[in-house]
C-alpha cells in the first residue's frame, strides 16, 4: 500500500514541496522562488504558468532528492496564498495573471464594501481589504471583455490542482479555509452570502463550489504525471489555505493554543471552538480551521521580524560585519544585546509599524522610539523592538477575550527565526503570561497539506491526533516569569495608549508634502 503523501505550499516568496511518510518523517523536499511581476505602482502579479511550473519542478526535485518511487505516493494536496484571485475560463485556462493579495489596484472598490464592513466581518470573519471581494468587482467593472470569459475565480492552489487534474471551469472549487478572505461568504454556515452578492450586482455564477479540504477533486493526468514524475491517476485533494496548513502542521489543534509564526511578519493565531468575530477592535480575522468545528483568530505585525533586520543593517552595521567575520549569527547577537537590557528597556517603547499597521488597519501608522534618552544604548533599543511584538500580541489577546470570553489560552507554540531566540521567547512569554515552546521543525505548511492528502485517502483518520503526533517541542518550554508579567502590565497599557493617541500625528505626517526634486 502506498504510504507517502505530498504537500505543496504555494507561498508568496516561493513554492515548497515536501514528501512525508505515514509517521510524519520528511523524505524529500524542494523549493523554488516565486517570480513576482510589478507592472505598475501598486500592482503585483504572478504568471499562472510560472506557478504551475514551480509545482511541477519542485515535486520532481523532491521525489529525486528523497528517492521516492512514484508508486509509493498515495495522494497530494496543495495549500497556497489566501487573499488573491486567479481567473479560469471554461477549459481551466487563465484569462489573466494571478491578482496577488499584495496588489491594491482594486482600491476604488473598497469604500463601498467598507460601508458594509461590520456586516461583512460578522458573516465572513474578516473586514474588507485587498482580498477576493474588491478584486472580483474590479475585474467585473474594469474589464468586461475579460469578465465575459471568466468561468470562476479561484486561488493559486486550486488553480494548479485543477490543471494537474485536467478539470473544467464548471468543476471550480474553493475549500472552506479560504472563506474568511472571500468577502461574500457566510463562513459559519459554509455557504455564499447570496443577499450580499446581489447588493453588489453579483451572483454565485462565477464563484466556485465550497468543499472540504480532503475532498478528492481529481486525479493526476498523463501530462501532469510526465511533468512531475508522479504516477498517472494519483489522487489530488482540494487542500487548504497556507495559514490553515501551517496551523494544522504545527499541531495547533486544541482550543486556546496560540501559534506564533515569528518570521518576516509576526503572525499571532489562537484556536477557537466557535465562530466569533472581533467586532470590538477589528484586529482579528476569524478563519476556519482544517479540523471541523474549530476556527482560529489571526492578526499580525507585517514587519515584526523585518524590524530586527532593519536594526541590524541600519544601526548595527559595523557590529554585523564583525559578527559575520567571526562566524557568529547576527540575530543571535541581537538576542544577547536585548538580554543585557532590563524588562521595559529603561522606559523605552518602540512602535513596530514601519510600513503601516495591518490589524487593525491604519496605513498612516509608522514606527517610532518613544522615551529615548542619552542613557539608552543599542541593547535597550533592540529589546524595545522585541517587546513591541509582545505588546501587540497582548492587544490581540485582549480582543480574543472580548470575542470568546470563556476561552482559556493555554500556551504559545512558536516557529520561525524569532522562535529560535531564547530572549525573544522569554519576552513574549513574560508579557503574555504564558509558557512558550519552540517546535522541532522548520516547515509546517507542506506537512499540514500532507496530512490533508493522507486524510483524503484514508491514511490518516483523525487529522487532529495525527498533527499532534507529528510535532514535538525543542527542549523544555520557556516559563513565564510572574514578576515580569506583572511588571509589564503598565508598559503594555502605555503602549496601547500610545498607539491610539499617535494615530492623529501619523495621519498629519502622512499628509505633509515632500521636497521638490532637484
TrEMBL record:
GO terms for molecular function: kinase activity; phosphotransferase activity, alcohol group as acceptor. GO terms for biological process: carbohydrate metabolic process. It comes from the Bacteria. This is Xylulose kinase. The keyword tRNA processing does not apply. Residues 5-249 form the Carbohydrate kinase FGGY N-terminal domain. Residues 288-456 form the Carbohydrate kinase FGGY C-terminal domain. Belongs to the FGGY kinase family. Keywords: Kinase, Transferase. It comes from Labrys okinawensis. The lineage of its organism: Bacteria, Pseudomonadati, Pseudomonadota, Alphaproteobacteria, Hyphomicrobiales. It holds the Pfam family FGGY_C.
Amino acid at each position: 500500500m502506498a504510504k507517502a503523501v505530498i504537500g505543496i505550499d504555494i507561498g508568496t516568496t516561493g513554492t515548497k514541496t515536501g514528501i512525508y511518510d505515514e509517521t510524519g518523517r520528511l523524505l524529500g523536499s524542494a523549493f523554488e522562488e516565486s517570480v513576482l511581476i510589478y507592472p505598475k505602482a501598486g500592482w503585483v502579479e504572478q504568471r499562472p504558468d510560472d506557478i504551475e511550473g514551480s509545482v511541477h519542478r519542485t515535486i520532481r526535485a523532491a521525489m529525486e532528492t528523497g528517492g521516492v518511487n512514484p508508486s509509493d505516493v498515495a495522494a497530494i494536496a496543495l495549500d497556497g496564498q489566501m487573499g488573491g484571485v486567479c481567473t479560469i475560463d471554461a477549459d481551466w485556462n487563465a484569462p489573466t495573471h494571478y491578482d496577488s493579495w499584495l496588489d491594491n489596484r482594486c482600491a476604488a472598490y473598497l469604500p463601498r464594501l467598507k460601508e458594509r464592513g461590520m456586516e461583512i466581518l460578522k458573516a465572513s470573519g474578516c473586514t474588507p481589504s485587498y482580498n477576493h471581494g474588491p478584486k472580483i468587482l474590479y475585474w467585473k467593472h474594469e474589464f468586461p471583455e475579460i469578465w465575459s470569459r471568466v468561468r470562476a475565480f479561484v486561488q493559486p492552489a486550486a488553480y494548479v490542482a485543477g490543471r494537474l487534474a485536467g478539470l473544467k471551469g464548471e468543476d471550480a472549487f474553493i475549500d472552506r479555509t479560504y472563506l474568511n478572505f472571500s468577502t461574500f461568504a457566510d463562513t459559519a454556515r459554509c455557504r455564499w452570502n447570496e443577499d450580499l452578492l446581489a447588493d453588489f450586482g453579483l451572483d454565485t455564477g462565477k464563484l466556485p463550489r465550497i468543499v472540504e479540504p480532503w475532498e478528492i477533486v481529481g486525479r493526476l493526468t498523463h501530462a501532469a504525471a510526465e511533468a512531475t514524475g508522479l504516477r498517472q491517476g494519483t489522487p489530488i485533494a482540494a487542500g487548504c489555505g497556507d495559514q490553515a496548513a501551517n496551523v494544522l502542521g504545527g499541531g495547533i489543534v486544541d482550543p486556546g493554543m496560540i501559534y506564533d509564526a515569528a518570521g518576516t511578519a509576526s503572525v499571532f493565531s489562537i484556536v477557537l471552538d466557535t465562530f466569533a468575530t472581533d467586532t470590538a477592535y477589528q484586529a482579528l480575522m476569524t478563519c476556519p480551521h482544517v479540523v471541523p468545528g474549530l476556527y482560529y483568530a489571526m492578526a499580525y505585525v507585517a514587519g515584526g521580524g523585518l524590524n530586527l533586520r532593519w536594526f541590524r543593517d541600519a544601526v548595527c552595521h559595523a557590529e554585523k560585519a564583525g559578527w559575520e567575520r567571526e562566524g557568529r549569527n547576527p540575530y543571535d547577537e541581537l538576542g544577547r544585546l536585548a538580554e543585557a537590557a532590563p524588562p521595559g528597556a529603561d522606559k523605552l517603547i518602540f512602535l513596530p509599524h514601519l510600513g503601516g499597521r495591518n490589524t487593525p488597519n491604519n496605513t498612516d501608522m509608522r514606527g517610532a522610539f518613544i522615551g529615548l534618552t542619552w542613557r539608552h544604548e543599542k541593547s535597550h533599543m533592540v529589546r524595545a523592538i522585541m517587546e513591541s511584538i509582545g505588546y501587540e500580541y497582548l492587544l490581540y489577546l485582549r480582543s480574543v477575550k472580548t470575542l470568546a470570553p470563556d476561552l482559556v489560552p493555554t500556551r504559545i507554540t512558536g516557529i520561525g527565526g524569532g522562535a529560535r531566540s531564547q530572549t525573544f521567547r522569554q519576552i513574549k512569554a513574560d508579557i503574555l503570561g504564558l509558557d512558550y515552546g519552540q517546535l522541532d521543525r522548520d516547515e509546517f505548511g507542506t506537512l499540514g497539506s500532507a496530512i490533508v492528502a493522507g486524510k483524503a485517502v484514508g491514511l490518516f483518520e483523525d487529522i487532529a491526533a495525527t498533527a499532534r503526533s507529528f510535532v514535538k517541542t525543542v527542549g523544555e518550554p520557556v516559563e513565564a516569569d510572574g514578576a515580569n508579567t506583572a511588571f509589564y502590565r503598565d508598559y503594555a497599557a502605555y503602549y496601547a495608549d500610545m498607539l491610539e493617541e499617535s494615530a492623529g500625528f501619523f495621519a498629519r505626517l502622512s499628509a505633509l508634502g515632500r521636497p521638490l526634486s532637484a
